[in-house]
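// run 5 | inverse folding | seed 20
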């Protein structure tokens, strides 16, 4: 394995199996999972409805590629198109969020005949050559070489940077003015703005509600497309909305929406939704060998049905709200916690050196280790100047499990004081 492969924990653990919101390692230790394979185990580990669908489909046919139709792919495409909010939607399936964003960039640049892209500071959109080049987070961008010309815009981080002192309305107005200024630097027509409604790897940061809707007014005047990267915010995780873009919906849905992670509940699914005019602009042959695989599509159909039938969005709102309240109460007595932020079952705790705004990655690593020792798995993230604990359990989390996780995290935070 390569030296640059990131692994959690000083002594990396091997996860062997899971059930519900818990996983076990090869030493027999049981953990409450508050990270869900980077927000991918969306409903629950070993969910019977999903494992049954995968097993039955595998017994029929495992693979065919997009050169052939398969019923689960069409069924999932119809459901995702209807849920997307995009009129006259078309859906193309990929194998990951990286590939989905890569496809969105291909569509936008082909449609607009431009290689210029607007992206947000502190962003992360994947690890391919094109998505690295629009990632505004240097920890995840190993090269400055790029097939695209990228302009970075203010506004995605509410509580840091030159706009942080403003109230929400003034913040939004200043970010819109910055967008206008950046467009004044671009030569010719920009293809698209790509933005995560809540930045994932960047530490669960977000702008005031309505900011991307305000951006949309500017984009529409210039004919620029809006790509909403919903790889981490989709499927009701924020509780208040099914998609993250809906917090910015005053001027309509995005032109392109990308998704991945949770829809497969661990199976490798990504995809792009776009209005037909944009999706159909590609004038060359294109397929996906593994996108739309019958097995992964069967998993997606079963997982989405379970999520909707059991109102897991509502559960994320209710249990997530309780968890965030508890985390804020705990953190009020921990000087190292600068901010608790998030929405639904998507919470971030930013850690700094007490009394300063300086990021403290050592403290974040120590809390993560202490939580694991006590039976809780959490994630990490942040930009070049932040260090954030990331909490995103499966959306079926119970109140009792939320309380248990909060208790463990409280012990872990106090262990570093």
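// decoded
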């Amino acid at each position: 394995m390569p030296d640059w492969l990131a692994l959690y924990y000083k002594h990396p653990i091997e996860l062997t199996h899971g059930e519900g919101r818990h996983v076990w390692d090869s030493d027999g230790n049981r953990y409450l999972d508050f990270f869900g394979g980077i927000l991918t185990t969306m409903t629950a580990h070993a969910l019977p409805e999903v494992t049954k669908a995968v097993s039955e489909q595998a017994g029929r046919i495992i693979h065919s590629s997009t050169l052939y139709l398969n019923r689960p792919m069409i069924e999932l495409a119809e459901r995702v198109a209807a849920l997307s909010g995009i009129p006259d939607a078309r859906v193309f399936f990929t194998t990951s969020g990286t590939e989905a964003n890569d496809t969105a960039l291909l569509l936008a640049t082909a449609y607009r005949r431009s290689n210029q892209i607007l992206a947000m500071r502190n962003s992360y959109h994947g690890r391919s050559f094109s998505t690295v080049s629009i990632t505004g987070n240097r920890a995840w961008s190993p090269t400055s070489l790029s097939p695209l010309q990228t302009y970075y815009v203010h506004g995605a981080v509410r509580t840091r940077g030159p706009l942080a002192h403003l109230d929400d309305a003034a913040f939004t107005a200043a970010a819109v003015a910055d967008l206008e200024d950046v467009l004044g630097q671009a030569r010719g027509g920009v293809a698209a703005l790509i933005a995560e409604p809540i930045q994932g790897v960047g530490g669960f940061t977000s702008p005031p509600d309505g900011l991307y809707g305000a951006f949309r007014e500017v984009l529409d005047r210039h004919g620029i497309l809006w790509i909403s990267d919903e790889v981490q915010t989709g499927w009701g995780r924020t509780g208040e909305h099914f998609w993250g873009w809906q917090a910015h919906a005053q001027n309509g849905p995005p032109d392109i929406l990308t998704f991945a992670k949770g829809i497969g509940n661990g199976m490798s699914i990504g995809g792009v939704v776009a209005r037909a005019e944009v999706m159909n602009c590609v004038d060359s042959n294109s397929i996906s060998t593994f996108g739309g695989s019958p097995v992964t599509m069967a998993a997606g159909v079963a997982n989405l049905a379970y999520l909707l039938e059991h109102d897991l969005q509502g559960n994320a709102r209710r249990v997530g709200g309780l968890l965030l309240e508890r985390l804020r109460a705990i953190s009020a007595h921990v000087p190292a916690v600068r901010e608790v932020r998030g929405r639904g079952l998507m919470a971030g705790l930013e850690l700094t050196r007490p009394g300063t705004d300086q990021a403290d990655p050592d403290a974040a690593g120590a809390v993560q280790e202490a939580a694991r020792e006590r039976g809780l798995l959490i994630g990490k993230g942040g930009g070049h100047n932040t260090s954030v604990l990331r909490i995103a359990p499966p959306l079926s989390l119970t109140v009792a499990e939320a309380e248990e996780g909060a208790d463990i995290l409280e012990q872990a935070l106090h262990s570093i004081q």
